[in-house]
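Troubleshooting log. The previous structure file for this entry was overwritten by mistake, so regenerating from the original sequence record. Sequence copied from the archived sheet and checked twice against the printout by T.R.
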Amino acid sequence: MTFEIWTVYVATVLALMSTPGPSHLLMLSNSAAHGFRRSLSTAFGDLTANFFQMLAAGLGLATILTASANALTIIKWLGVAYLIWLGIKMIRGATSGAIQKTETLKTVTQKSLWLQGFLTSAANPKAVVFFAALFPQFISPNSDFMTQFIILSTTYIVVDGIFLSLYGMGAGWIARKFAGNAKKWVERTGGTFMIVAAILLGLKTIREQ
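Regenerated output below.
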């Protein structure tokens, strides 16, 4: 994997994370209720689930690519279509509802906060499909699969960890900004970014053919 491809991957991940998902909102809520340092357990739980989801996606991709040399191109185009669909769904489903706040400020254990983060992420079975759609866009069949997979997975976890930390540290300010119509426009913008990213990935695939 070249540095140029890696930078495009980082830019794509940043675009796809431009709007908060359930795990980010949980981090925001827990940080506001229990403090940033304690809420880090929630972030670790989310990233742990992400690791297993990426591992499942990677094992499936490795099996498919071993069976067919042309499978990567097919998977890439299916991935582009899937990301566009997610973007359209995000735009159409944008709401103006305020972020749900934690109902109680009672002290909870670090294990409980970790479990909340893990279950929130693991409860989304589509995450495996998401990673299976994203990773092939940047994997070259002429290079070692496992090396590329480790680079992509590690990069995603680091970027997501940074986003979770930023949401946690800015909990109060972000909660105010995402109340009312601000949340709706952030979701619409995020959906637009996702569609644009998918189109650019499709153009990249065309150039490689």
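Residues 36-72+105-184 form one domain. Archived copy saved in two places this time.
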